[in-house]
Amino acid sequence: MSLQRKFELLRPRLDEASLRLCAAADALVLGRGGPSLVSKASGLSRTTIYAGLSDLEQSTLPSAAASKTAGRIRRAGAGRKRLTQSNPALLRDLDKLVDPITRGDPIRYEKGDGFIFWIQDVYK
Length: 124
Fold this sequence. Notes:
- With 124 residues, the protein is mainly alpha-helical.
- The chain folds into two domains: 3-70, no CATH class; 83-119, no CATH class.
- The chain is 55% helix and 8% strand.
- The protein has seven helices and two strands; from the N terminus they run H-H-H-H-H-H-H-E-E.
- Helix 1 crosses helix 3, helix 2 (16-30) crosses helix 3 (34-42) and helix 2 (16-30) packs across helix 4 (46-57).
- The radius of gyration is 24 Å and the shape is elongated.
- It starts with a helix and ends in a 5-residue tail after the last strand.
């Protein structure tokens, strides 16, 4: 079985941390040039594989059971913040821009959690 086929089979079954560690272990076994070969076979970047190698070298890795019970791979709070948090006036300003345009238009405009537009019968 080729290395590429191995990662095709494992990718849907492993989370990103487990896949990174698996790729790093393969790169370590292959030796010199291993990260490049594994990168081509797996589709992961070499930076990700080197991060996995660094994780393998650490002796204080969280156990798989601990990460599964937490139900998370990444830390809580990670990701992009909502634009309305950094600019509280954004929704009001967008409403001023859109409201005059939507009156009498075949576009139905509704406000909910965000702005939702439905284009009715445009592609008929």
